Amino acid sequence: MLHIQDVSKQFGPKILFQGAEAHLGLRSRVALVGPNGSGKSTLIKIILGLESPDTGRISRARHLSIGYLAQEVPKFEQTSVLGEVMRIGGRRSELLTAKTELEQLFSEAKTEDTTNLERYGRILEELEHLNEYRLESRAKEILTGMGFRPQDLERPLTHFSGGWLMRVALSRVLLMDPDLLLLDEPTNHLDLESLLWLEDFLRDHRGALLLVSHDTAFVNRMVHEVLEIDQRKLWNYRGNLDAYVEQKEQRLAVLRSQHASQQVRIAEIEDFVRRFGAKATKARQAQSRLKELDRIERIELPEERATVRFRFPPAPKGGKEVVTVRKAAMRFGEKTVFEDLNWILPRGSRIAIVGVNGAGKTTLLRLIAGKLQPSEGQVIHGHEIKVGYYAQIQAESLDMKKSIIEELEQTAPDLPVSQVRGIAGAFLFTGTAVEKKCAVLSGGEKARVALAKLLLSPANFLLLDEPTNHLDVESRGVLLEALQGYEGTLCLVSHDRAFVSPLVDHVLEIVPHTGPGPGGSRVLSLVETYDDYLARKMREASEKRSHALSGTERQQPAPSVSETEKARRQGPSNNQKQAWARELSNTESAIAKLETRQAEIQTLLADTDTYQDKARFLALAEEQRGIEKSLGEKLARWEELGLLLSDN
Fold first, then answer.
1. Which residue segment(s) compose the domain that 281 sits in?
2. Residues 441 and 513 in one domain
3. Any idea of the CA torsion for 429, 432, 434, 436, to the nearest 10 degrees?
4. Strand bridging mode 522-526 / 506-511
């Protein structure tokens, strides 16, 4: 489907990769990995045709469709959530506009041009490929999986944050159903429920997947092949991320052994030439050895990359009760986030705050950290509790006008400059790099500065909001190891399952309010461990997906309130159940007949002979529109009946 053939690329003296070779098949599931700056983004742009390789080529199957999700929030039109998702890159709108224009010409009998008739047939065929007539229900299903509520779908995009806009962008790419999905960090803005839904969706995707992600648990579940950019080459490994790590270490062990043997041989040759090169009796042999030396293709070992290295300082002794929350409520205007919250956090606890996006996880964390004051009630820190807070949005904790060293010195004004610089160096800020302004730093660099600030202010209560965002795999591993050795109390919000699981022993779940009225979320202290919670959520997501596929939990259109409520409150009679079952069976048969006839009409409309008889063509087009309407009505009733029967 897509071949990377002998591709090379460099910028100035820096060579990103040479002679890169790879193949993506129809059902390939591939992770693209490599350190920051290795060329992942450049290779993606070459695949997309946005950049040209210096040598080599990218061969694509004819009519290959690619759906691409970038890390940056795209520029959207001023439209609603549902409207934007259904644009599908603008192609759907183009087709619908052209279809309407041609139908207007036909209805006014202004054209006899067979070219227009043929064009109309091709448009119908492409819309059929896009599954146009079920597109809206599919779009709503995807948006629901992404965490949007029914009342959100018609809201303007200007009402949503960048994280929610990224969900819109991802939903649009998924709705395209392309031959190749190319996703760059798709999980960065997803909560656990949406992430689990995405995993199920991608497993069912009929096409290929090329994935760039730092979420190791997600990657492990999604891929069976890994492409790594390293040593200016593109390496291919079979299996998931865990298999890649093992295979790479085996490859490097062999490479190190070969390198050591080669160095011994080179040293032997150089020693012989040095000892006997000037002797007449050995000169010929020395020259032969020199030629052998020139012929040796030197084995290069990977460069040792600098990595973050740190440990949290000993936690100061504090009270037995780290924080006490009494009848606390948090409101923003008319919106109640939560209310009547009572909670005591004992010293030494390691808590994960979990829940869907928008439920109030970050608000609760900021409240506990003292960054927000409760609208009602009290939040009391225990005796000698020193809080260390890591914000999800680093702009909250960094002064963008200051340099790195100024920011760190301000955090610990009593420490010697040499010690502050030493901690900066542990986070890869050395030499003149410490003079860079915070405003120009990348997301990963800002994250490292924020972590360095935590080390400069010893705390016995750490509150971390999505600490692994913007960190590469190596830095995440270092942070995980440091937190495992941390002696104080820990409370964190993170969607990174592999990161959270070994760190916490308790779960605090925020369940959003779903009933009538303005009530806030419920905050539940769960008795289950994080792994138990995760297993339960995965099971619930799987069950929900199964119901959705069987048509029993589809949200559009909803069943009639009166009929459903009557069934739920009073319980239907056996006769009613049998009547519903018969109607369901008859509806399924009717749908099958309509779909069969729809396919027959599509075949006729694809035949150029059909356009020779304009009256017949217009009759078929009219019948097609009637079938579309009938199918929509039948499918709506089929979904309603399925829900009624499943509930009773």
1. 253-295
2. yes
3. -120
4. antiparallel
Total of domains in the chain: 4
Kindly state whether residue 108 falls inside one of the protein's structural domains: no
Does some domain include residue 226? yes
Domain CATH number, residue 202: 3.40.50.300
| DSSP classification of residue 186 | T
∠ CA 386-391-396, rounded to 5°: 105
Residues 267 and 341 in one domain: no
Cα–Cα distance measured from residue 641 to residue 88, given in angstroms and rounded to the nearest whole number:
31
Task: Tell me the pLDDT tens digit for each residue of 51-78.
Answer: 999 999 998 887 788 899 988 877 777 7
Q: Around Cβ 454, how many Cβ atoms within 10 Å?
A: 21
Could you give the CA distance from residue 134 to residue 559 in angstroms, rounded to a whole number? 18
The string of pLDDT tens digits covering residues 282-334 is 778 888 888 888 888 888 887 777 778 888 888 888 889 999 999 998 888 88
Does residue 429 share a domain with residue 394? Answer: yes
Rounded Cα distance, 52 and 578, in Å? 64
Q: Which of 336, 329, 326, 314 lies closest to 381 in space, CA to CA?
A: 326
Which regions of 375-465 does DSSP assign to beta strands (E)? Answer: 376-381, 387-390, 461-465
pLDDT of residue 130: 62
Rounded to 10 degrees, what is the CA torsion of 512, 517, 520, 521? Answer: -20
Using the predicted structure, report yes or no on whether residue 518 has a pLDDT greater than 90: no
Of 523, 572, 476, 159, the residue nearest 337 (C-alpha): 523
310: in domain: no
Tens of pLDDT, residue by residue over 408-435, are 988 888 888 888 898 888 888 888 888 9
